[in-house]
C-alpha cells in the first residue's frame, strides 16, 4: 500500500510556487507492530501560519499541519477500527502512529459537522475566542477587524456582536462583503480594495476606536495604531499575512510614541497558550452554533491532490471562512 505526502523541497521565496511543494508517494508496511494504528486522512487544514512557520525547519520535509483522520487498521486497543481523531500529522494521506499524537474530539459535537473541528471548533476558532478575550470587549465598544471573512476574522466579528460591540469590518471581495454584512450582521463592512481603509475608519469613528483585531499586519497595523485607537485602546495581533510573502523587510512609520502616549495595550496571541481551556471554549461556541448565533462557512477543496492549490488560495483571498481539503 502506498500513501501520498506533500513535501516542501525548498523554502518559499515570495509567493509559494509549484516547484517549492511536490506531491510524493511513499510505501506503507503490510503489517503493523503492536501498539500501532494506520490512519487515513478525512479532512485536512491549510492555514496562513504555515507560510512563516515553514522557515523554521530545513527542507525537504513533509508540510506540517492538522488533519482529521480515521483509523483503518489497528493493533492498539485504545484506538479501535473507525476511531476518528485530530492530529498534527501534516500533509499526508496516510500515516502510522503509536497513539501518543492522536487526540479524540474533546467535547460533544452533537449534530455539528466534523470538519468544523479544523475551523470554528479548532485552532482558528480558539484563536478568535481567546484573541477577542484579550481585548476584554464591552457593550458599545468599536472594533476594527481586518480579514473579517476568514476562518478567524468571521468568528471574531460574530463573537464581538454577541458582546454588543460595533464591528467595523474589512474584506477582500464583494461576495465576502455581502456575507459579512447580510448574513453575519457586521455593522460596517467594506471591500478594502475599493476604499482607503484609514479614511473609512476616520469617517465612521472620528474619535477613535477602543479595539483592534489584526489578522493582516503591514500598513494596517501601523495605520490603526498611529491614527485610530482611543486612549487605553487594545489590540490583539493575530497574523501578518500582508507581509508573509515579502522578500525584504519593509519599513513603516514609528508607532512607539503613539503606544506610549495613548497607553495602548498590544498583545500577540499564540493560541496554544490557552490549550487547556479549548474544550470549554468549543463547548460554548458549539452551543452558539446550535442556537444559530454563530454561523460557519467553509471553502472545501475536494481531493488530497488539491492541497497545494488550497494553500495558494489563502494568499489571494480565495476562501470565505475556513479553507478545508476533503481527502
From TrEMBL:
Its EC number is 1.3.1.48. GO terms for molecular function: 15-oxoprostaglandin 13-reductase [NAD(P)+] activity. Pfam families: ADH_N_2, ADH_zinc_N. InterPro entries: ADH-like_C, ADH_N_2, ER, GroES-like_sf, MDR_fam, NAD(P)-bd_dom_sf. Coiled coil: none annotated. One of its GO terms (biological process) is prostaglandin metabolic process. Keywords: Oxidoreductase. It catalyses: 13,14-dihydro-15-oxo-prostaglandin F1alpha + NADP(+) = 15-oxoprostaglandin F1alpha + NADPH + H(+); 13,14-dihydro-15-oxo-prostaglandin E1 + NADP(+) = 15-oxoprostaglandin E1 + NADPH + H(+); 13,14-dihydro-15-oxo-PGF2alpha + NADP(+) = 15-oxoprostaglandin F2alpha + NADPH + H(+). Residues 17-325 form the Enoyl reductase (ER) domain. It comes from the Eukaryota. Belongs to the NADP-dependent oxidoreductase L4BD family. PANTHER family: PROSTAGLANDIN REDUCTASE, PROSTAGLANDIN REDUCTASE 1. This is 15-oxoprostaglandin 13-reductase.
Amino acid at each position: 500500500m502506498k500513501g501520498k505526502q506533500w513535501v516542501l523541497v525548498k523554502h518559499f521565496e515570495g509567493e509559494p510556487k509549484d516547484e517549492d511543494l511536490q506531491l510524493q508517494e511513499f510505501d506503507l508496511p503490510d503489517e503493523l507492530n503492536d501498539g500501532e494504528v494506520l490512519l487515513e486522512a478525512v479532512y485536512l487544514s491549510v492555514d496562513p501560519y504555515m507560510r512563516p512557520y515553514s522557515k523554521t525547519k530545513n527542507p525537504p520535509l513533509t508540510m506540517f499541519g492538522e488533519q482529521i483522520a480515521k483509523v483503518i487498521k489497528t493493533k492498539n486497543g485504545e484506538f479501535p477500527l473507525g476511531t476518528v481523531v485530530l492530529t498534527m500529522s501534516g500533509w499526508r494521506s496516510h500515516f502510522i502512529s503509536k497513539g501518543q499524537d492522536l487526540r479524540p474530539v474533546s467535547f460533544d459535537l452533537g449534530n455539528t459537522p466534523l470538519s468544523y473541528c479544523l475551523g470554528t471548533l479548532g485552532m482558528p476558532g480558539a484563536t478568535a475566542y481567546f484573541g477577542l478575550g484579550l481585548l476584554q470587549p464591552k457593550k458599545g465598544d468599536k472594533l476594527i477587524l481586518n480579514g473579517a471573512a476568514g476562518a478567524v476574522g468571521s468568528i471574531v466579528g460574530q463573537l464581538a456582536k454577541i458582546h454588543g460591540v460595533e464591528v467595523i469590518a474589512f474584506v477582500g471581495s464583494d461576495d465576502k462583503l455581502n456575507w459579512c454584512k447580510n448574513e453575519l450582521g457586521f455593522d460596517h463592512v467594506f471591500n478594502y480594495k475599493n476604499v482607503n481603509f484609514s479614511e473609512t475608519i476616520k469617517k465612521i469613528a472620528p474619535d477613535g476606536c477602543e479595539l483592534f483585531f489584526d489578522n493582516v499586519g503591514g500598513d494596517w497595523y501601523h495605520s490603526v495604531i498611529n491614527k485610530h485607537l482611543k486612549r487605553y485602546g487594545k489590540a490583539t495581533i493575530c497574523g501578518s499575512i500582508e507581509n508573509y510573502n515579502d522578500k525584504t523587510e519593509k519599513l513603516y512609520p514609528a508607532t512607539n510614541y503613539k503606544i506610549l502616549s495613548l497607553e495602548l495595550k498590544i498583545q500577540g496571541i499564540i493560541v496554544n497558550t490557552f490549550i487547556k481551556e479549548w474544550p470549554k471554549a468549543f463547548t460554548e461556541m458549539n452551543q452558539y452554533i446550535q442556537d444559530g448565533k454563530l454561523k460557519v462557512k467553509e471553502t472545501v477543496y475536494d481531493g488530497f491532490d488539491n492541497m497545494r492549490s488550497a494553500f495558494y488560495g489563502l494568499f489571494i483571498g480565495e476562501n470565505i471562512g475556513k479553507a478545508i481539503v476533503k481527502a
